[in-house]
Amino acid sequence: MKGWIRWARTGAVIFISIGGIVVLLIWLAGGFREKIEPGPTALGVQPLGQARTMTVELMTVPLAEDAVGTVRAAHETEVGSKIMARVLAVNFQAGQHVEQDQVLVELEKGDLTARMSQSQAAVDAAQASLDQAQTDYDRIVRLRAEDSASELEFTTATNRLSAAKANHEQARSALREADAVIGYATIRSPVTGVVIDKMVDVGDMVRPGQTVLRLFDRLQLVATVRESLATRLEVGQQLPVTLEALDLHCEGTISEIVPESDVLSRAFHVKVTGPCPPGVIPGMFGRLHIPLGERQELRIPQSAVRRVGQIAFVYRDVDGNRVERTFVQLAGEHGDQVAIASGLSPGDRIVVDPNMLKGED
What we know:
CATH architecture of the largest domain: Beta Barrel
Number of domains: 3
CATH superfamily of the largest domain: RNA polymerase II/Efflux pump adaptor protein, barrel-sandwich hybrid domain
Largest sheet: 6 strands, antiparallel, barrel
Helix content: 25-40%
CATH class of the largest domain: Mainly Beta
Number of helices: 4
Oligomer: single chain
């Protein structure tokens, strides 16, 4: 008997606890509060007075979908050194616009100038040897015509002339190489573009193949577009683009639709190019606005809407002299207008400037 009483008490405690929790959850969810539906409410009416009114009408608005993307360089170029030398001057900064063939970096060329002088001296010496060999050859040819020179002398003169010509050409090749190498001491921009990154400073020692800067010549927005929407797009099509960091709105042209879908997201990469205003840099976030058609919706001025917490309402004209509060459900803001999901119908008249009503601030 005592066991049964103990069991009954335990069950009652559990039952009361569960009931209390359920009641608490219903209260937290607002189950005991009165709901306010969109539309007119029984809050009474007010005189219209001098307040301005307007007729609510359906508007035709464009329907679009946004595809997010990232600004990237269409072509990125790495500029490097072809020789080992110390940096003498750096004539650019990261973010600077540079023209094709503009001098960007100057390297020390004292050793290269000395090598150039040596090569020029070698050419001069080879030219003198060539002139002497040519003179000797011409003399032997004349003597041989008079039978005054042997075949051996003629062969020797011919060989000396050939060797002198070869030495002269070799010296000239070395001079051309020295001239080219001394040109490598001046690093120029291969394209017109903007410097992304500076990788050297004055006094640094650079080696052959080392990158001294990176630059890009054109920017593009690479957006991720779902495959069912990407199939509607075409190369050359113009679409609106927004860069939120700069509050920039412009038109872009589709330059490429990558012909491969991502197997995980089922989306395509769409590349959009266009005029690049100052301040746009790789890595910025952007949106590509893709039109889907049009739709009808109710829009009213933002000034006509009053808000109390999460509740929004307008003042609806009842009979030309009086107004009443009408609760509305908003569907999004569009500049100085707001879309209405429910609570108003086409033809309703609302107050545009509620501040003109008595009792409104």
